[in-house]
Amino acid sequence: MTRNLIARSAATALLALIANGASAADGAAIPQRVEALLRQMTLEEKVGQLHQLSDKEFITGPESAERRNLESDLRAGKVGSMLNVKGAADTRAVQAIAMQSRLKIPLLFGLDVIHGYETIFPVPLGEAASWDLEAIEQAARIAAREASASGIHWTFAPMVDIGRDPRWGRVMEGAGEDAFLGSRIAEARVRGFQGAKLGGTSSVMATAKHFAAYGAATAGRDYNAVDMSDQLLYETYLPPFKAALDAGAATFMNSFNTLNGVPATGSAFLQRDILKGAWGFKGFVVSDWNSIGEMVPHGYAADLSDAAAKAITAGSDMDMESNAYAGSLAQLVGAGKVDVKLVDDAVRRVLTKKFELGLFDDPYRFSDAQREKQAVNDPAHRAAARATAAKSMVLLKNDDGALPIKRGVKSIAVIGPLADARRDLEGGWIVKSHAERVVNLVDAIRAQAGSGTRVSFAAGCDIACAGDGGFAAAVAAARDADVVVLAVGESWEMSGEAKSRADIGLPGRQGQLFEALKAAGRTPVVVILAGRPLVFENVAEQAKAILYAWLPGSEGGNAIADVLFGAVNPSAKLPMTFPRHQGQIPITYQQYQTGRPVTDPRDVLYKSGYIDMPNTPRYAFGHGLGYTTFAYRDMKVSQDTMKADGKITLSFTLANTGAVAGTEIVQLYLRDPVASTVRPLQELKGFQKVVLAPGKQQQVSFTLNRDSLAYFNRKLQWVAEPGRFELMVGAASNDIRLRTNIELTD
Ligand code: BGC
To answer: From CA 23, how far away is CA 35, in angstroms rounded?
Structure first.
């Protein structure tokens, strides 16, 4: 008996050694090594691989009632992954405990590295406004470099949910409202996080989240139910996920919402039919925080055990913080209620990633204190954060060339509750604040204005702006200034998860602070900081210049000053429509034509309009100005008819007609005017960033093929229907400069 035990443990150790010896580079051998390891695992150890727990210090969801014996569970191989453990030292220490387990299977450390690790980039929606895929990829690369050195293997990003309701606080984390732009950004972020291939120590696994349709939460209320047609799901909400998958996303996270009555976490339609079936996804799906457990309050599972059975059956591989799998999966298998093959499949997927990351070679290879120190302090990272932030800021309005501020003005008054903010500039979802390193806007303006300019500051009120007690001092500070800059908007805590707002106006009386300055004859240049589109009609109507700076990150103050003084010519374009009023929500440029369209906003009788305001937004998708002007001319198409297997190239001339160098984001839209289902009035099909010196021009071209014209029909087939298509090229969805038609012939 004893001899048997010794022999068995020797064999186990040998197999563990073989398994652990797999090289990250030796991709071909991974499946065999996974199988060898799987054969050695008890059912409890398998379930352990599917169990993910958060560190206790730093939690990102409601704390689970059941506190556990973490250390002994780690030692017993009952935990496969942890989130929120960070830093080379801590990850190393926790990994060392897991390495005392029988099979020495390394832990995966996951973390929400959303818009930077220690060097903070603009919130993702802001970064999306740059439409700059290289800058976005680079931001993710830098975040990966910093996070991976501090022991992180896996980021819960990118969030690729489409957002069309700015009341939903999580629009801050996404790339806006459009499937095409969102897909390109999803790819860039996945490439950035993962690098060329998993296994390098400066790459982290990406997570495409939240699968799926979470962005359509009813009434913009977080975690709320979603009801939508399959066509809208396929056409708008799924493409960024598919793009992330095609770019190699190693993992997916499911979502809190129900979709047409079924919690996404328990949806076999989403996770098995689409993701692992039709799309052939080979990575693993992690649940969202307690989303398996939440199927009970949803009314979809009777208890935690029922929830576990439903989730594993539906294809959720790893349980984040529900304790549902750890508590019930083994019994469910024992009782014949869950087929062990489902568990094996999930474990196989998780182990495969651990092998690909090289963790069986060296479980500590990511936790490198020296590399961590270098990476998080690399000045090149801060330079990139500054450049990206400046590229993300949208110049919404600039009448009479109010911006840029001329250097050498005698005095500038910087007013507003966000003028001296530091922490707020860093934005909503960061793992470590370094507010002390952030240069606030007043100081950044002071630094760039030069010694001849007097810069004064008065907040006027705090962000909540409940009273006007500080307005008089603000007006006094502004009174004799040549230029007044007003910085208003949201705090970092007003957008993000569980930060839905029913009223998305400027908080409190901030709008009145603007009015007070205007009444004193000191109409300010307005800088708005926020994690979502806000409604600010009085400012939009009366300000001469408005710069929408989002929550711009560690270097945000400097980057705003770069744009205000013209060191950077703004080029960003809105990735999300800005409504005039929250009554217009949900709002998108992808409107459908009705049978009773409004042609004249003054005449809405029996028309599809509002009697109290236009249908049009305040600022349209794709809108954004700069300090120069561009002319679009001479559009040509290579031919005006196309066969199903053909291509058409459309080209035109773009000229910088202003006095300074600038970057234009040219946009290509399409309309299919008659189809077997009604198509949107416009769909983005391409964009390019073109840099031009003043007086220079360039030929710009786009190539279209059948896929550019296709859509999901009622049977969810990807079809391109013969007929005429309208092509529109312009500077924004509502600023179309050139149009033409093409025809698909068969
Ligand atoms: C969020 C996810 C996040 C997870 C882990 C959840 O509450 O919805 O986006 O990745 O927590 O922090």
So the answer is: 15
